[in-house]
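User: Assemble these into one structure.

Assistant: Restating your components, then the assembled model:
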Amino acid sequence: MSERTTSGLPHSSLSEPDPGLASGDPSVGSSPATVPELSGGGDLRQASLWSDAWRQMRRSKLFLLASGMLLVLAVMAAFPQLFTSIDPRARNACSLANSRKTPGTNGAWFGYDTFGCDYYSTVIYGARVSMIIGLVVVGGALLIGIFLGALAGYFGGWFDTVIARITDVIYGLPLILGAILLLNLLASDRFFGERNLATVSTALILLSWMTVMRLFRSSVISVKDTDYVSAARAMGATDSRIILRHILPNSLAPVLVYATIAVGATIAAEAALSFLGIGLQQPAISWGLQINSAQSYIRSAPHLLFFPSIFLSVTVLSFILLGDALRDALDPKLR
Amino acid sequence: MTSLMTSPSGAPVGGVPLLEVDDLYVEFRTDYGVVHAVNGISYTLSAGETLAILGESGCGKSVSAQAIMGILDSPPGFVTGGEIRYKGSNLLTMSAKEQRDLRGEEISIVFQDALSSLNPVFSVGAQIGEMFRRHRGASRADAKKAAIELMERVRIPSAKERVNDYPHQFSGGMRQRVMIAMAIALDPAILIADEPTTALDVTVQAQIMDLLAELQKETGMGLILITHDLGVVGEIADRVAVMYAGRIVETGATDAVFSAPAMPYTEGLMASIARVDQKGQRLNPIVGAPPNLANLPSGCPFHPRCPRATDYCPTALPPLLEVVPGRYSACHYAEEVLRDH
Amino acid sequence: MARYIARRLLLAIPVLLGATFLIFAMVFALPGDPIRALGGDRPLAPAVQEQLREEYNLNDPLPVQYIKYVGGLVQGDFGRDFSGRPVSEIIQQRLPVTIKLALVALAFEAIFGLIAGILAGIRNKSFFDSLVLVSTTLIVSIPSFVLGFIAQYTFGLRLGLFPIAGLNDGLQSYLLPGFVLGALSLAYIARLTRTSLVENLRNDYVRTAKAKGLTPASVVGKHTLRNSLIPVVTYLGVDLGTLMSGAIITEGIFNLPGLGRAVFDAIASQEGAVVVGIVTLFVLVYILFNLLVDVLYAALDPRIRYE
């Protein structure tokens, strides 16, 4: 959609004698006699980009902080029992007598929710859904985006045009709006029949592959005309081999940075959809759902709002920080 | 040390010289350590004189120019010692405003890469005219008129039509002319040309150098030419100062230095020139890499690359001393070197 | 330039058609029968239902329905909702609320985002710079509906500074939701401005400006800022999409009767014409805004020329 052309930069119009014609004119004793310029450092190879990045990251406090928080959250998602002895899904876990009791009551750190369930364990168990959706959606978006981006960038032509138009159309739709419609559609009997993890993940994947596609497409375009790809082609490598062996590893860095941050954004989007009542449904345990049911009690029981909000924000924050650390490490220019 | 080097130069014309750089030190404080970019250089410049500062990239020649202009990026760059006197008064102790008023008005600079040194989003006319608007309070219309005159003076064809064009619409040589027009706009007393032709094609280089020489003749300004191009130095410089590792290692009248160097580094530079009369012979480049300014070799910083180095060289830093009248060299064996030519 | 704009507008047509068709198809495919649902517990008489279906072209296959709809759209007819109210009337009534909300959000973004970004960029690596970096990261991490509740709770309930919902207090009602809606973009603009300013301050022409004897204020204000704003302006094009998405949530939390609420409600009641009408408007605004951004881009950067 953007046809920007930067008009040719150097040597555009005014007549300066053509240097190509100037054969050495030695009369003044000044053929290009210059002090030898010794430039240090050869070209960076891929291997050293990643190992440099790794070395840089291990020293980065940001990276350590983010990966530390994510490790805790990952364990929380996989083994919530390690954090709480109460299983909020158990029959006897809740007692309506405790409904919306404030933190501290009966030793419950986070108080109780509307159904009188221990809020701390409920919030802890919410991590699983967020992590699964975040990783599944971004994984799916990566697969679709990289596949389509590679084809569009490598082959160009009508395929590229069609993909570009489809991308424009989806970008033109506000994400939440598209998600609302898609979710209504996917939850119908024709598809999933209910609003579960698969429904929400599918809807979000369908709406979030475009950025990966564009990033990867432009990486492919910038890489495909380089000498080493030409060399590989001259050696008789097939298209798929060139894409997988030569272009993919060289185009991965920006996609990886984006993907990390996108996990955070996806988790926020799932929570927003569940909050709007069109994502996951009770009895699923999701921070978005918890915030949804808490909103009616913002005056009387604000703690119901705060705890899932804090967990949600910290999770999103961790992925954003990790993405920032990755970008700092992978793109020295931005430092 | 300072007193020894107050005037490694031709005698100043009538009392105080135009510019005196006196034992200047500049360092960059980076995350990886302190880089000693300029380590006690001294020179003077008189009106109408052309001084060439010659050296490899990274030897501190551009940094010293930026220190004179007061446009070092600070941090990380700091002037840590010495004085820069313009007509006798020390620039380094002036207030920021006094310094700014001198910039462009009295001391001007032409940079190496005109494309990146001109602002891409303003027309060349506006950028030249800005000198008059800033320093002379000229109106927009007057500034534009003055800009056209200057463009004609540096021989940019059809200046009137091109005054509203943007830098990217000019060729490399024409852009450098725009830079020069900007620098000489207010008839400065000193023009520093920092590798003005490095980014240009060979034939255009000659035209730009001719233009600079001509402008200097017309205005009588002092010209400091920073370059690594020996040919250019030989053509237009009255005197030359050779820099190595942030120090001046040899200075004197250009002809004398070129015909009989008194420092092995200068010798190496001369030997690396491809000369017409020696066709077919091998070039003799200086072996080894330029020194790491964050971690200089002991003693004479040139000793690891010096073909004449002895056991003594790594132990003591040779001061810049007068070898013969008007010739200074920072080599323990300066007289021997000189005798060999 | 005129030719470029004309071509861009032509290119926008397939996007507009594609987006509306996509929405149309999704609304069409939604389960349930909106007409049967109309009467609630007491369904309308079958004859009346049939008449309504005929009136709203619901018996036609999808492509025919769509073509009839676009036919009306070209003549400025956005269709009617099931109670017979023209969609254009709904839009007219709801649009001002959303526009005001978006303007307040944009004002927050532009003023605070730019100021924070410029100050942080000039004082690179200072305390203020770190403060901007940390606070923008936090803002970006807090989902907008969470931020909405935090703002409602602290500024509305606890401090009582702003009304927490509804439209009863004139412009004041828009301040809190406008801030919440603009917060994410505010953070992005601050960061973008900072990064781009820091990068541009390293350029050679900044050195030239200093060498001309310009004051620090005009070195930054005149020679660097304009170059630095170019990416920020580009971002504003993308930003509008964020604003429209955000409006659906923000209007919900703060109970503002804008287009976002309208479209959300319309999806729930399967008012196809209302949904498609509002989405068409959103997409149209998005396309025009992006075109405007590209034109502005060329005005800021003389190196960009459109053919």
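Chain B has a mean pLDDT of 85.
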